TrEMBL record:
<feature type="domain" description="ABC transporter">
    <location>
        <begin position="8"/>
        <end position="256"/>
    </location>
</feature>
<dbReference type="InterPro" id="IPR027417">
    <property type="entry name" value="P-loop_NTPase"/>
</dbReference>
<keyword id="KW-0547">Nucleotide-binding</keyword>
<dbReference type="InterPro" id="IPR005670">
    <property type="entry name" value="PstB-like"/>
</dbReference>
<keyword id="KW-0592">Phosphate transport</keyword>
<protein>
    <submittedName>
        <fullName>Phosphate ABC transporter ATP-binding protein</fullName>
    </submittedName>
</protein>
<keyword id="KW-0997">Cell inner membrane</keyword>
<dbReference type="InterPro" id="IPR003593">
    <property type="entry name" value="AAA+_ATPase"/>
</dbReference>
<dbReference type="Pfam" id="PF00005">
    <property type="entry name" value="ABC_tran"/>
</dbReference>
<keyword id="KW-0067">ATP-binding</keyword>
<keyword id="KW-1003">Cell membrane</keyword>
<keyword id="KW-1278">Translocase</keyword>
<keyword id="KW-0813">Transport</keyword>
<keyword id="KW-0472">Membrane</keyword>
<dbReference type="InterPro" id="IPR003439">
    <property type="entry name" value="ABC_transporter-like_ATP-bd"/>
</dbReference>
<dbReference type="GO" id="GO:0005524">
    <property type="term" value="F:ATP binding"/>
</dbReference>
Amino acid sequence: MNKLIPAIRVKNLSFSYDTQKILEEVSMDIYESKVTAIIGPSGCGKSTFIKCLNRMNELETQVQVEGRVEFYNQNIYERRVNLNRLRRQVSIVYSKPNIFPMSVYDNVAYGVKIVGWRPKVEIDEIVEAALKDADIWDEVKHKIYKSALDLSIGQQQRLCIARALAVKPKVLLMDEPCFGLDPTASMKVENLIQSLRFRSELTIVIVSHNLPQVVRVSDFTAFFNFNENRIGRLVEFGLTKKMFNSPNDSRTRDYVLARIG
Ligand SMILES: Nc1ncnc2c1ncn2[C@@H]1O[C@H](COP(=O)(O)OP(=O)(O)OP(=O)(O)O)[C@@H](O)[C@H]1O
């Protein structure tokens, strides 16, 4: 494996919603150009963790954060950080597609237009490229000015990925992107992740309960679990192959064995 460069370094991160502590002292690196999977039992803080990586959970409620999250050496929790810029560079796709009630085109162009004025022809090119990158262009090219709400859920999810890709993020966070999709739609999203995986300019973090899928799509895996106080902790982090074949920690082994045997 080539030299690993951390795109994001998480150092002693603890996180609370109001006074309820959710995560405690998480430290790990997220390597550039790799796919890192976050696994663990329901409620242990996986979604919370990835939303800490672009400060998305601050939009929801009062939060407390300790420790550091460094995105290419800059602590994103410093006061002077431009959150809009951060969230373009570290973009997120949720488990439930958050389609805007507008056309397919406008859904993808949305983030691009916010950044600043560009000639329409340039936006057209960006929209087409993003839809191609998200492997949905052939399905929507004849209806890009029609409402995105008329697409299937699987198509809506790939449209959300196109929207995220259109602003050229360095890191793409995916929170259970195949949740609720039928097997065919889920496979399309998985194939898309595989094709994005081999783009050197993109780093991917994916939360998933689907462990066979994690094995197929990820390079590294982080296993989170509750500690004795029901607070989420990172138990083990390493190469996906190693984590699934010979984990260091018995809790990782038990979790993996219970789910894929
Ligand atoms: N906005 C919020 N305000 C308060 N508590 C929250 C909020 N979002 C999540 N929580 C709580 O944080 C804890 C961790 O939730 P989180 O969604 O991060 O877990 P998860 O591991 O991703 O779970 P799942 O696998 O079921 O999606 C839960 O107890 C949840 O109720």
